[in-house]
Amino acid sequence: MGRRERVRQKTQKHKQIKKLAKKLKPGGAWAASAAAAAVSRGKCLRFTPNERILVLGDGDLSFSAGLAEHVNNAEQVTATTFDAAKTTEEKYGAAFLHNAQRVRERGGSVLHGVDARRLQRTLRAAVARHQLPTKHAGPFDAVVFNFPHTGKQRSHLNKSLVANLVEDVPNVLATNGRMCVTIKLAPPYDRWDVPSMETDAMAFVRRLDFDSSVFPGYRHVTTEKGAKPLMKNAQKANNVAAPSTAATLALRKEESKCKTFVFQLRTSGAAAASAGGEEEMERREEQEEEQDPEKTRQRQDTQAALAALGWTL
Asked: What strand order describes the sheet that includes 173-184?
């Protein structure tokens, strides 16, 4: 590298530092964003220690661990992942193991193999497999699903994931219970029109800001390992022990596009809950089992565990 190039790079670096300082000073762009975020935090998703909470699709369990710290008592928290424990560990490694420990240390429970598209059925099966008290199958005061995604870049499948949950969630909610779904208002997610998914049993009631700092240690992780991150600044801020002020503010700015949509159980409409295509899924599973004896054995074991609890699959 020649002298002229070194001088050019040094000059460019000084310009970047000056530009950053301008943004961070009172009244600067990032300072304004941080102030706006601070003001909006009163309208963010929050929970109380006495609420019974079910967390769905929590990847590395960092949200559930942060939630346990947020409420300071996780005895009422049931954290779940879509994948089996072994697969989840392969995807997220030590972070998953650490977060699972954080949840359990505060009294919470962790379940694997829970599918939001067939919530009541797979939740009961998971409770039976893990030999946990039946309270972990509901009813819940709140069901939370952050950034739902099937792992496939097919918008209609991901939209259907949320729609199916809205249909089935009344089966596990307590009277006046609520469901909270957080998405990023950017293509293609902003085209899902989540509020329009309300049903006879579930009413859309409000939209809240999302602030990850409410849940210490939370970070967004992708459904499939190595997939493109939803929030690149989140990855940068979370990959270091102590992110810089600039990185934190950039994350807050990016999170301002994330909103939580809250649905509440209509007391009079609880009986109108529908399984939403579950019969078709059952037929497909039966066809798969005919070709895979191991799946048949697993299903029989699950049925036996459920029967011991007085449930049916």
From this structure: 109-112, 77-81, 53-56, 140-146, 173-184, 258-265, 202-209
Task: Return the higher-pLDDT residue of 41 and 57.
Answer: 57
Task: Name the more confident of 121 and 149.
Answer: 121
Q: Are 215 and 67 in contact (CB under 8 A)?
A: yes
From the list 284, 290, 209, 216, the residue with the least C-alpha distance to 253 is 209
CATH number attached to the domain at 44-267:
3.40.50.150
Per-domain residue ranges for the chain? Answer: 44-267, 277-313
Q: What is the pTM for the complete model shown?
A: 0.69
CB 182 within 8 A of CB 260: yes
CA angle 98, 61, 94 (to 5 degrees): 30
Instruction: Give the integer Cα–Cα distance in Å for 67 and 2.
Output: 53
Q: Give 64-84 pLDDT, tens digit per residue.
A: 999 999 998 889 999 999 999
Contact between 183 and 189 under an 8 Å Cβ cutoff? The reply is: yes
